């Protein structure tokens, strides 16, 4: 697969959004050395495979600091553009095979294998309300939560908001007692074997329980499940379901006088081309004024959390992608930054605090916005 | 010693922005062209002019080479550190400091990219634009100017380097100086009427100082833009056609294209004529005048306008044209190099003949693109050769063809644009001895320790 690495000219179109406003590659924007750009990374990978470069901590960090946001794929002008991310993942796979991954990535993968979540947390640390949730037993929908929504505070809030909306709308749904990780980050990190194992476990469970329709909270889970081999069930991101409920009149929304800007998650946007459904939900809230950030839709700047970086945070620092993004959101004069992904929510909320912007802009998930305006 | 230098650099710009790691040294040791790599000792990314000054003072004191770099897209190795030392990646200095709309100029830092300035102007003053080269958006504006680049306004206003309204430069000894009106006024409106000190830095490839800020002329940007392709077969008639087109003063940009593939294009030469206007009437008027200027050639069946399919027109009107970047992958090999020959327009037939001969002799394919400079005062004629980065034979052929193109350029009376170090030697060899001596004396005066981008414009007196 990487035999064509030499075709990258390192012209640099891949660093930009389509209008060239600013650098749009998270790792390049953060580090600014050419080595952290998509082209630089590909050239280094080629140097490694050619034997010109030895594996090192730095090379490892460069290869694993790509957050798989796909901006490079979107903006590269060459015929091989669709393969760029696959090449990076292939290089990671080689590192995984040879036991060369950075320690934080190793821990991430080991924790997933041992504990079912990347933080290595025991099940007792899952959201407390999970115990009260109805288990899936043939309802219309299975709500798939994923690690972020079971263990991470902002994710659990988001999942709770979605669940409350589904209850209000009278939707029949259940959750799993024992979910396996969706495997999205594992796939992006190049651990294909583990991804297939997780996919197989999930598929087996879905089949046993007769699942027909799945709603995911996280776009990452949505993306992973779309890649499961032989899926025979319908899969939706929660924003798609919410929009459907609004259209069918099952959810009526009251007024919310606020200026809101929306951050496109990479795994919903560039990876799956869902740009308008979340915006349609926000526009359905009367009084809500939706404004766009400079970089939006296929040009959205990533929060920096993808590919496991929400755990190991290789891109932290004063110009971390999340901090750059929250500054961009602030430039719109919006009071609320709406998100549709638990990882984006956590990354951007943390960035709001680090930037000292609490009280100036608030990160809220779309479900929370809908819930607060639902009659 | 290296460890001490490393610490000193960290002291200046902070640990995050200095690297002596193999990975950065590898990437900054090469560009996308065919020059041999040469590793630096450090890569440093300054944010302010004061940081640049401190780095240069350190380098001058310790006699360490310093190579300023933008996006390193010259393809001729001008930012390769031939004698090791420090590569200064200037792209953290990326602020657009001032837009003077009424005075039609902008003041930028050295790391501002073409893409960033283009986007900024489109958003903040859509009736103004700068001369945009056909480089990727990641190329820096200052880098393009320092190598005497060209852009879409070059036919109308000359080389992009003639559009400079002011400079801030860190000299090789560390002094900061300003050139032009900004040296005595808060306004960066003009280089003239003072002694033309800008000439000490433009075209010198960073061997005389580091430009940290630049004032740049902006020009009226019309609301509409269109392109026509005039096709002919006889290169001698192209010279006449360009004379007639430029005489009308109706075209914003005039370019040339000749390539053997697709086969339908073989044996033809195309002139891209770009027109702009604020109304359809203005465009139509210009179109008509240009058509009339070429009517004799059309009547004599020596040439004609090509009907452009929408996709082709879209590609030609794209700013910048990504199609030119895609030339790099014609052979699915991720590489192309070119000798940009600055030649009198009348030498076009000779240059084209040479290009075809060189390609045939070296069993390689070619592509030519060119651009008229001024109202036909000269033109840039690119002898371009794609190559496969993964095929040593293909690389060898392209290298040889490139070398022969530089020789051909000099032979027909042209001047190679942004030549690499070996080609600079070819130029210096042919240059008037008095001129060479003057260049040497200027460098010696400005850079007594020879620290600035050594290897380039090396005059051996």
TrEMBL record, chain B:
- Keyword annotations of the record: FAD, Flavoprotein, Oxidoreductase, Transit peptide
EC number in record: 1.1.2.4
Task: Name the Gene Ontology molecular function terms of this record.
Answer: D-lactate dehydrogenase (cytochrome) activity; D-lactate dehydrogenase (NAD+) activity; FAD binding
**By its UniProt entry, which SUPFAM superfamilies does this protein fall under?**
FAD-binding/transporter-associated domain-like, FAD-linked oxidases, C-terminal domain
Catalytic EC class: oxidoreductase
Membrane-spanning ranges: none
Domain of life (superkingdom): Archaea
Assigned protein family: Belongs to the FAD-binding oxidoreductase/transferase type 4 family.
Query: What is this protein called in UniProt?
Result: D-lactate dehydrogenase (cytochrome)
Give the lineage. Answer: Archaea, Methanobacteriati, Methanobacteriota, Archaeoglobi, Archaeoglobales
């Amino acid at each position: 697969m990487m035999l064509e690495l030499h075709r990258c000219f390192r012209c640099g179109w891949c660093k930009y959004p389509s209008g060239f406003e600013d650098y749009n590659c998270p790792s390049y924007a953060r580090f600014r050395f050419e080595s952290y750009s998509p082209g630089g990374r590909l050239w280094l990978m080629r140097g490694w495979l050619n034997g010109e470069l030895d594996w090192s901590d730095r090379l490892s960090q460069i290869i694993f600091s790509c957050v798989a946001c796909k901006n490079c794929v979107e903006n590269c002008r060459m015929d091989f553009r669709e393969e760029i991310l696959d090449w990076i993942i292939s290089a990671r796979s080689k590192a995984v095979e040879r036991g060369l991954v950075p320690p934080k990535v190793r821990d991430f993968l080991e924790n997933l294998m041992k504990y079912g979540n990347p933080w290595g947390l025991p099940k007792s640390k899952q959201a407390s309300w999970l115990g009260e949730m109805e288990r899936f037993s043939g309802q219309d929908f299975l709500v798939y939560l994923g690690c972020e929504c079971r263990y991470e505070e902002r994710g659990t809030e988001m999942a709770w908001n979605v669940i409350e909306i589904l209850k209000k709308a009278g939707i029949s749904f259940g959750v799993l007692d024992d979910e396996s990780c969706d495997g999205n980050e594992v796939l992006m990190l190049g651990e294909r074997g583990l991804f297939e194992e997780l996919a197989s476990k999930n598929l087996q469970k879905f089949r046993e329980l007769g699942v027909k329709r799945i709603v995911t909270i996280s776009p990452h889970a949505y993306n992973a499940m779309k890649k499961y081999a032989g899926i025979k069930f319908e899969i939706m991101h929660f924003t798609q379901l919410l929009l459907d409920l609004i259209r069918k009149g099952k959810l009526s929304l009251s007024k919310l006088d606020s200026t809101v800007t929306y951050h496109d998650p990479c795994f919903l946007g560039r990876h799956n081309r869902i740009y308008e459904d979340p915006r349609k939900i926000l526009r359905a809230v009367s009084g809500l004024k939706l404004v766009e950030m400079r970089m939006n839709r296929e040009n959205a700047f990533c929060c920096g959390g993808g590919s496991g970086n929400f755990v190991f945070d290789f891109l932290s620092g004063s110009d971390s992608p999340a901090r750059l993004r929250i500054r961009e959101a602030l430039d719109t004069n919006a009071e609320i930054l709406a998100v549709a992904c638990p990882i984006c929510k956590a990354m951007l909320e943390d960035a709001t605090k680090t930037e000292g912007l609490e009280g100036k802009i608030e990160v809220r998930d779309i479900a929370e916005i809908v819930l607060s305006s639902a009659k | 010693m290296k460890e001490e230098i490393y610490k000193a650099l960290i002291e200046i710009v902070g640990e995050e922005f200095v690297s002596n790691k193999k990975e950065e040294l590898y990437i900054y040791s090469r560009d996308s062209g065919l020059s041999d790599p040469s590793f630096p000792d450090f890569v440093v990314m300054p944010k302010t002019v004061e940081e640049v000054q401190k780095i240069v003072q350190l380098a001058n004191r310790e006699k360490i080479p310093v190579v300023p770099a933008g996006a390193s897209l010259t393809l001729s190795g001008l930012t390769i550190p031939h004698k090791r030392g420090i590569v200064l990646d200037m792209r953290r200095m990326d602020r657009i400091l001032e837009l003077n709309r009424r005075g039609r100029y902008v003041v930028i830092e050295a790391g501002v990219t073409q893409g960033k300035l283009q986007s900024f102007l489109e958003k903040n003053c859509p009736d103004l634009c700068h001369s945009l080269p056909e480089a990727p958006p990641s190329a820096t504006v200052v880098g393009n100017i320092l190598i005497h680049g060209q852009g879409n306004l070059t036919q109308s206003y000359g080389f992009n380097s003639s559009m400079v309204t002011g400079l801030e430069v860190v000299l090789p000894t560390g002094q900061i100086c300003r050139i032009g009106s900004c040296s005595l006024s808060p306004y960066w409106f003009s280089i003239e009427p003072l002694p033309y000190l800008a000439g000490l830095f433009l075209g010198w490839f960073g061997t005389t100082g580091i430009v940290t800020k630049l004032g740049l002329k902006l020009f009226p940007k019309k609301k509409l833009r269109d392109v026509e392709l005039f096709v002919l077969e006889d290169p001698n008639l192209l010279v006449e056609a360009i004379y007639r087109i430029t005489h009308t003063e109706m075209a914003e940009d005039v370019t040339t294209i000749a390539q053997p593939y697709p086969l339908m294009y073989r044996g033809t030469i195309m002139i891209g004529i770009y027109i702009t206007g604020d109304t359809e009437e203005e465009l139509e008027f210009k179109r008509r005048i240009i058509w009339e200027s070429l009517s004799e050639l059309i009547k004599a069946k020596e040439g004609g306008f090509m009907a452009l399919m929408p996709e082709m027109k879209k590609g030609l009107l794209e700013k910048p044209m990504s199609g030119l970047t895609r030339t790099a992958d014609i052979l699915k090999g991720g590489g192309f190099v070119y000798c940009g020959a600055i030649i009198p327009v009348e030498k076009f037939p000779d240059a084209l003949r040479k290009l075809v001969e060189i390609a045939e002799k070296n069993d390689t394919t070619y592509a030519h693109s060119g651009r008229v400079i001024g109202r036909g005062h000269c033109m840039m004629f690119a002898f371009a050769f794609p190559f496969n980065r993964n095929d040593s034979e293909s690389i060898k052929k392209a290298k040889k063809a490139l070398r022969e193109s530089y020789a051909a350029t000099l032979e027909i009376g042209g001047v190679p644009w942004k030549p690499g170090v070996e080609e600079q030697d070819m130029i210096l060899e042919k240059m008037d001895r008095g001129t060479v001596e003057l260049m040497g004396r200027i460098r010696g005066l400005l850079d007594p320790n020879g620290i600035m981008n050594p290897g380039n414009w090396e005059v051996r007196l």
